[in-house]
Amino acid sequence: MIGLYKTECVRRDGPFRGVDDLELATLSWVDWFNNHRLHRMIDNVPPIEYETLYYRQNQPVQQPLAGEPSLH
């Protein structure tokens, strides 16, 4: 993961003027990596979209409200 980060962010966008510039570039890269990149193993869908679809299809069992009897 660190090698991928260095290749795609640090070496491509650098050199940076200071730590603040590197930090902003890192935040931008992490946002892209987690939310926008297409992932081959999940049918070329961005990870956040795949996760949203997963949780939409697999709704958790509703927990009883406080004070209501439980079935367990």
Describe this structure in words.
The chain has helices at 2-13, 19-35, 47-57. It is an all-alpha fold. The protein has one domain. Helix 1 (2-13) crosses helix 2. The protein starts with a helix and ends in a 15-residue tail after the last helix. The model has no long low-confidence stretch (mean pLDDT 83).
What are the defining features of this structure?
about 70 residues, mainly alpha, 3 helices, about 0% strand
What is the compact description of this entry?
This protein is 56% helix and 0% strand. The protein has 72 residues and is mainly α.
Write the layout of secondary structure elements.
Blueprint: H1 2-13, H2 19-35, H3 47-57
Helix pairs in contact: 1-2
How are helices and strands ordered from N to C? HHH
Q: What class would the helix/strand composition place it in? A: mainly alpha
Name the average pLDDT: 83
What oligomerization state is this entry in? single chain
Coarse morphology = elongated
Strand content: under 5%
| Count of discrete alpha- or pi-helical segments spanning 4 or more residues | 3
For the sheet with most strands, the description reads: none
Please give the number of β-strands.
0
Indicate the percent of residues in helices: 55-70%
Low-confidence stretches are none
